[in-house]
Specification:
Radius of gyration: 36 Å
CATH architecture of one domain: Ribosomal Protein L15, Chain: K, domain 2
Structural class: alpha/beta
Number of helices: 6
CATH topology of one domain: Ribosomal Protein L15, Chain: K, domain 2
Shape: elongated
Number of strands: 7
Order of helices and strands: HHEHHEEHEEEHE
Distance between the termini: 81 Å
Strand order of the largest sheet: 2-3-5-7
Helix content: 25-40%
CATH class of one domain: Alpha Beta
Length: 142
């Protein structure tokens, strides 16, 4: 459509451009404010009908707990051969040396069975893990 035929050309100089009173087409006055303005005042019925859970507290924010990356003794025992092949563990006359820090684990737990003499270096380990490894002929280095 050519510009000369547009309605805007006829509205030039008319001050309100067909919107009646000057303030009727400015910002958010006609709708009672921009966005969610007035939900506690003049838009309260809208809030009740369409946003019933908008106000107030809902639930709680849990405390962010520090999580540690753990592995069970049994899982480690099952993966010994694979770790030796990948050269992430080394075999000595004392036993198989594994550094859990290099593998990305923070703590050793005592789930499962141990059949190899493991010499494990870790930041932390449970009592049951220490007991099982010592019973199998290994030791834990902290």
């Amino acid at each position: 459509m050519p510009h000369r035929f547009r309605k805007m050309r006829k509205q030039r100089g008319s001050r309100t451009v067909g919107y009646g009173v000057v303030g009727q087409h400015r910002k958010g006055g006609q709708r009672g404010g921009k966005g969610k303005t007035g939900l506690h005042k003049h838009k309260w019925s809208y809030a009740i009908k369409y946003l019933p859970n908008y106000f107030g507290n809902h639930g709680f924010t849990p405390i962010k707990r520090v999580t540690s990356n753990t592995i069970n003794v049994g899982e480690l025992d099952e993966q010994v051969e694979m770790l030796l092949v990948l050269k992430k563990a080394s075999k000595d006359e004392e036993g198989i040396k594994i550094d859990l820090n290099n593998l990305g684990f923070d703590k050793l737990l005592g789930g499962g069975r141990v059949s190899h003499p493991l010499i494990i270096k870790s930041n932390a380990s449970s009592k049951s893990a220490i007991k099982k490894i010592k019973k199998a002929g290994g030791k834990i280095l902290d």
